[in-house]
Amino acid sequence: MDKHPSYEALSPYLSKYPKAAGSLFQTYNDLRLAQQWTDLELVELPGCSRCGMRGRRPQMDDLLCVVPCSLSESLSTDWIRTTFKELGSPPHVYLAINTEDSSIVYYKISPGIVKPPL
Amino acid sequence: MSLITPSRQKGSPKGGGRRAENNRIYAHPLPLVFSAPESRSRIGHVLGLFGTNTRLENPHCEGVFDPATRSVWVTNEKDSMILWRRGFFGKGDLSRSEPSWLARQVNARKAAGKYMTSEEVREKRRAERKQFKMDRAAAIARAAAEAEAAFAEGREAAPAFIPSGATWKPHQSSEISSLPEGPPEKHPDEVVEELEPLENVEHLQLTLQEAFFLVWNLDCLTVLDPHTREPMDLRRIWQSFQEVHCIPVDLPVYANRCDNIFLVNYAAYHYYRSLGWVVKGGIKFCVDLLLYKRGPVFHHAEFAVVVIPVYEDPADKESSPFNLPNSDTFSWSWLSTINRVNAQVQKTLILTYVTIPAQSRVSADLLSSPACLALYSVRDVVLRRFIPARMRD
Asked: Where is the tRNA intron endonuclease catalytic domain (chain B) (predicted)?
């Protein structure tokens, strides 16, 4: 992992929050390299013992928030509420669920009921 | 032809050429290949028919153990291709399946897109589906407005046409552009020269179960230690793969546990692989594993597997430091949800019960090697929804 180009930007957070290191690394690389997000910045979420991310999707202007987690973790609604609070109450948060084979499934979480767009 | 209209043909919608190509590329079901060298003499040829001339070709792939992501990384491109093409082991960490990140970047730069990778096909399909939904919503709104107007005037509304998946046709709209295009005013050759040369930052990621299967059963993979870069021997691999789930590692409660998550998952993985199925992860369908008959490129997975660990000795469950998923009795609503999700995508749900032997009858010695797997038993139960009113046979 330390040979990877993304390691330098991530290393302080990988050692600070070791349990979330794998999911942070996978999600960061997926967003930056595969999904081609721009203006990607890391946001510390001490209440959830991990680091989240904020960035822009290609061809879209809004700043979106992503919180990585692993499939083996159990989350509580309190945990989700904490992520919203620590990210500055965005309109919605994307939860990136990472697996060991490097698949990432993103879930969009909003605080409250949301009507489907179409 | 729209990518979202259901296919008219029964079998694969791909042409015969693509199928033949796939049969050629993915001809070997495992990384080990048997080859019979051409023999000049008659006796050699006759002996060859008995199989005495056949040689086993072992690709000897190499991977690095990464404890943080609980996986083994194969960075060598040749090894990645071999492991993917012969048995569909692993997944490109920046791709849907086969490591195709570099090809997609090159495609994007050239903006020629002659051969679309599966990710690009997926983007095109999603863009079409979005357009279809917008057209449908607009048609519904129009029909509602027309009905309102007709009611106000006291006449019959004209019959409305709402497009469905089968009838909608994609129209050439300039707003649908899913592939990122380079700046149009520059000459394509200039674009390639100005950008930095691409370094392939993608690797093939093998789950610990896949890696162990390749190491122990086929002996075609060497796993390197992440810090020393030295090859790890089988005993160390067996131990390290279990230790990733023990945090912190030296806590005595983790020692000699039969219910380590790696062991339980490996028992199920080994069971299906040894029966000839291609086993991949099933997170996209809320299950643990997906079983493919030949591989993902040929046909969608027929079976979705949920691994349910069962303790032979209930006391082991009480004393367990692990919280194995699905080890508690499940509610029927959970089962019903998963079955419905998979029935929607034409997959059959299989519940795979892995029985964990009692801690009391397994010695620490036995646990230190894969020989303890003989004590695990795997039983599967196939589930199908039964509707008495409709299914009379």
From this structure: 262-354
